[in-house]
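Lines hold sequence, tokenised fold; shown next:
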Amino acid sequence: MASTDLGTTLTAQHRLDQLRLRTATVRDLLLLFRLFDPADISGSWATIEPLLVALIQARQPMSAALAARYVTEFRRAEQVAGNASVALAAPLTADDIVPNLRYVGAQNALRLDQLKRPASYVAQTTMTRVEGEVTRQILNGGRTTLVDTVRNDRKARGYTRVTDGAPCAFCALLAGRGPVYNSEASADFHAHGKCGCTAEPVYFTDAPWSPSAAKWDSLYSEAAKAVPRSTPDWSAEVRREFRRRYEATATT
């Protein structure tokens, strides 16, 4: 929740910078994935996996550096006294990267092959899932840098989730919850594959919510009112009702 126009502008620019990094990554990933052969999943994956690991290791620090610059400029724009130490996300090791990457890649492709799915389907589905995981891990460099820097900044109260104009229901729900305060146990940033969300530091809790966050908050309130309190697992049902209302809104 930026309290200044400059802060709002910096947040929007930072999100676009991260999305540009994702776009460049996807372009390179498409070239690398030409090596994937659905007729030789294990063999071709053995060739492509180290290249994907190298791509993630090269781009994740770039995402972290973008966030480091942004959080420093944002703090200054919000006219917060003093300086905060930036907590850059640690570089990822192969052990950090490979388990999830292999799960959505080779393991998923082998499962689809065992189900007798067409080779074209195996290749396209695997590419889509690998793209989501690769970009998630890369952009987590920026998200982790932001969240950890905010958590260590004594002047910061927490952060808010920043989405694009058409987020998925999951991201809209989280953005509609408003600030995530440093004292909360849920202060980690949750991002799915292909997620384009980032975070904005909160220094002043009386700053206005963004129009999109206020919209999702209102939609959640409507969903909560629509579900009787006597409903078993009330909170889960409210989330389902939010999703239904969100998807209905998105199609109108």
Observations:
- The mean pLDDT is 92.
- The two ends are 28 Å apart (CA to CA).
- Residues 5-154 form one domain.
